[in-house]
Amino acid sequence: MINSISMQGVxxxxxxxxxxxxxxxxxxxxxxxxxxxKSTVARYLQDKKHNKYSNCSYELPNAQxxxxxxxxxxxxxxxxSEGSFQGIFTLGEANVTAEQAVSTAEAEIKxxxxxxxxxxxTLKLHEEEKTTQEKAIRDKCFESKRKxxxxxxxxxxxxxxxxxxxxxxxxxxxxxxxxxxxxFERLATDSKELNSKSATQKxxxxxxxxxxxxxxxxxxxxxxxxxxxxxxxxxxxxxLQNSTWVNKGRFYIDDAEGKCPFCQQAIDDxxxxxxxxxxxxxxxxxxGELETLQSGYKKEIETLNGTLxxxxxxxxxxxxxxxxxxxxxxxLQANLTKLNQKISDPSIKITLESTTDLVQPIxxxxxxxxxxxxxxxxxxxxxxxxLADIKQKFWSLVRIECDAxxxxxxxxxxxxxxxxxxxxxxxxxxTTAIQSQKYIITNKHKIITNIETSTTNINNNMKSIGLEGxxxxxxxxxxxxxxxxxxxxxxxxxxxxxxxxGEKTLITxxxxxxxxxxxxxxxxxxxxxxxxxxxxxxxxxxxxxxxxEIGALTHKKLIKDDKYAQVILLTHSLYYLHEMIRYLPKKxxxxxxxxxxxxxxxxxxxxxxxxxxxxxxxxxxxxxxxxNGSTNxxxxxxxxxxxxxxxxxxxxxxxxxxxVLNALEESDTDFSPFFRFINRESxxxxxxxxxxxxxxxxRFINKFKEVFIKTGFEEHYNKMMA
Length: 722
Prior knowledge:
By secondary structure, the protein is of the alpha/beta class. The chain is 57% helix and 9% strand. It has helices spanning 38-46, 73-80, 96-148, 164-173, 184-195, 213-216, 234-240, 243-249, 269-278, 281-308, 311-314, 319-344, 356-381, 383-448, 452-464, 492-498, 501-517, 544-559, 574-583, 615-628, 636-650, 654-667, 671-678, 687-690, 697-710, 714-721; strands at residues 4-7, 19-22, 27-31, 57-59, 67-71, 84-86, 90-91, 449-450, 471-475, 478-485, 531-536, 566-571, 591-598, 602-606. Helix 10 (281-308) runs antiparallel to helix 12. The two termini are 42 Å apart.
């Protein structure tokens, strides 16, 4: 069925916002006065491909399977303008076997179509699942953006921030690298340095120069330095290994006042001479050599510490470098301590640790930094290409980061694609099976189709509604056409010209009802449950005597058996609308009801059965709508005239009305335009619309009220306008 209709840009549907209707029910009823847009909707469904309906649309799933049949004035003109019309092929009763084959094929088609719809639904669900999964992987990968957005690597996201789709496509197009030699952190550091406003070329860091190898391996460190053997004290001092103690004590002899500084006994000059002889020039030279070595070593340490405390080294903030410096410094301090001990006691042997191997690791670290600085200087001198390289590496890392999710997604999609292919194959198989059944129906129809049944049905229906003296017959020169006949002597053209508009409407509508059950093409295989029937005012130009019959036939042929996909009825008559709603099943509300409204443009609004009034009440509602500015004033002439005719005919006061109208026109010059406004014989007279210029609703409604006042029916006017 047609689930929705959208009207825009045609006839009175000119509002920038389209009029959209939810028509997803088996039966759809439209009510509205003439000129409000009903016929435009029917004509659109009749001729959807016309370029004037380019802004209109409707939703009809599997539209190729459906046939839309529309009854309106265009149908009448097309099918009945020459007094004859195409025959309708229907099933006869001659070949019971063929009919049974057709029925079986139709039942099989119905079953197959149900299965195909299920396959389509399954296919749709799989496709929706695929769409969901594809959105999920895009959104998941898009989360990577948030880690780097508005940070040092933000420039790498340029062009890919706004859309998860483009972000994901970029990832997929990026080659997967197994073991990159870079990280997000390293790339962020490089980006920050390059993008810094203060970025300048970096100077190389000088290597450490520490030449202490000769000092640390000096042979004097392993020598035992003692006093001279020329003194008779040498033997005992060496034996006691206390020459250092003696050497220190001899500096106190001069202040000892003739006493030994060691034992505090009286001391003579000979003993003093022998003590001093222990420490001759050779001893002093050795000790001086030690002191020079210690002083140079200490100076090298101080120079090294000064170098390492410079900004070239302190700004590196490198843990490995700090540990290497600490290890070197500790070793130097340990060696210096040993040297101090040797100077204090030249008789001891010491061994200094070599610091040569501790300087090289520091210089290796510095060399690595210098290599990075050189690379940075190169990148900075070619900044644009350097940032592009960082961007490429960035996307390589994002690709690696998302790889597991992408692989899982690929596995899921492969499974879904298999399901889609299976459902698609099933749908195609069922479609082929349906076509095979339709082929059976076509072949059987060729055997048993005829138009005799249709002529009989139409003639019987014409008699049933009281249209006597006219019948249709097969055309003698064209067996696939009908013609009208009143009696033997009448020609078809004479009969056609003698028909009233109402008779033409009745005959063509009966023909249309028969057409809905058959086809003008014997090869047509469209089933009734794939037909959408649209009927636009079949009671136009008919007297009230026929409205009941037309309503009954519409119910019997189109609604009762619920065999058509959808039935859409449009009418201007509330009485006919009442009849159609009355025929609807009391416990089934599978229908929708709409009302056409027109001010400057047409609009369509849902309505409830309880909103329906009779024709007379509806006319008064239009007057009130015009007073409120919610309808087009151009409809007022016909509405006012109909109210006056209806009411004063009902109260048998036609002459009174005529007299009052004439008297008011003669006595009140302001009344003359109103008199001309409503006093037209037919609402089809276009002059009635155009000769008054802009219609002032307030002015004419006041004059309309004055008629009721002058005739003594002001109370009725007030009641209806309340």
